[in-house]
């Protein structure tokens, strides 16, 4: 049945409501993609911190990053999905192990720049332990970049998860997911059931665009937050200083008049 007021996305070839199936598939995709992003970003943060230990660890991390980034992304995803299996845990591992290198490189450069600052060098000279130095002087500067990187990685992970399932290397077709819905819909497009692919695909596209917009807004806040806060503070302070200046100037003027 085509989309109508009763069934917003229509029904599939078995008469099931496509809107409820699409929502359930989107929630499942968000859950699996979120777990994969958290694991991938955690690996990236640990690898970036490991690269600061000494030059041998730094060389090893750079070698792994270059090795993973030299492989075609989709081919690496397919190989990892075949190794870990097509269930939820295997898909999470495949996405996590294929998306950490870029964020690792970004965080490593950020940490290296922080490690060269004077206050970081002074903290080391004062005898603070490495754990205290990382907790107080490293993580507060790196975690905003890490959070933005996770948000930017989320739409990427959702797209690749849907692509893997669509190609047959991801979740089982009976499991509700966006890739499975699109894969099943491709078999019925020639019969005139256009809504089977258009409605779930449109819902996935809108979700990805909203996530990308949210990530860009957070990135803008992280980059321009201190300047905006300083500007707004200056704008608020200036009007409040005017009554104080008047109160402070009046006694001086009165004393000058009496002395004259």
TrEMBL record:
It comes from the Bacteria. The keyword 4Fe-4S does not apply. Belongs to the binding-protein-dependent transport system permease family. Residues 26-215 form the ABC transmembrane type-1 domain. It comes from Shewanella eurypsychrophilus. It is a multi-pass membrane protein. The lineage of its organism: Bacteria, Pseudomonadati, Pseudomonadota, Gammaproteobacteria, Alteromonadales. PROSITE patterns: ABC_TM1. Keywords: Cell membrane, Membrane, Transmembrane, Transmembrane helix, Transport. InterPro entries: BP-dependent_transpt_permease, MetI-like, MetI-like_sf. This is ABC transporter permease. Gene3D superfamilies: MetI-like. It is found in: Cell membrane. SUPFAM superfamilies: MetI-like (SSF161098). Its main location: membrane. PANTHER family: ABC TRANSPORTER, OLIGOPEPTIDE TRANSPORT SYSTEM PERMEASE PROTEIN APPC. The chain crosses the membrane at residues 30-53, 73-98, 146-171, 191-214. Pfam families: BPD_transp_1.
């Amino acid at each position: 049945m085509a989309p109508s007021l009763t069934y917003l996305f229509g029904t599939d070839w078995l008469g099931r409501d496509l809107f409820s199936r699409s929502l359930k598939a989107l929630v499942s995709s968000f859950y699996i993609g979120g777990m994969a992003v958290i694991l991938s970003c955690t690996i990236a943060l640990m690898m970036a911190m490991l690269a600061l230990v000494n030059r041998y660890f730094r060389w090893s991390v750079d070698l792994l990053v270059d090795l993973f980034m030299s492989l075609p992304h989709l081919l690496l995803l397919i190989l990892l999905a075949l190794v870990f299996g097509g269930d939820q845990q295997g898909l999470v591992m495949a996405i996590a192990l294929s998306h950490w290198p870029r964020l690792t490189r970004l965080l490593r450069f950020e940490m290296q720049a922080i490690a060269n600052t004077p206050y970081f060098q002074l903290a080391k000279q004062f005898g603070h332990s490495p754990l205290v130095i990382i907790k107080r002087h490293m993580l507060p500067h790196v975690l905003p970049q890490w959070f933005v990187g996770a948000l930017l990685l989320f739409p990427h992970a959702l797209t690749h998860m849907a692509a893997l399932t669509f190609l047959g290397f991801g979740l089982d077709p009976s499991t509700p997911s966006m890739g499975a819905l699109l894969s099943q819909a491709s078999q019925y497009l020639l019969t005139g059931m256009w809504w089977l692919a258009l409605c779930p695909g449109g819902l996935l596209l809108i979700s990805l665009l909203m996530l990308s917009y949210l990530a860009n807004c957070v990135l803008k806040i992280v980059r321009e937050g201190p300047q905006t806060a300083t500007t707004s503070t200056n704008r608020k302070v200036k009007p409040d200083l005017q009554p104080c200046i008047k109160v402070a100037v009046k006694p001086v003027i009165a004393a000058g008049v009496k002395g004259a």
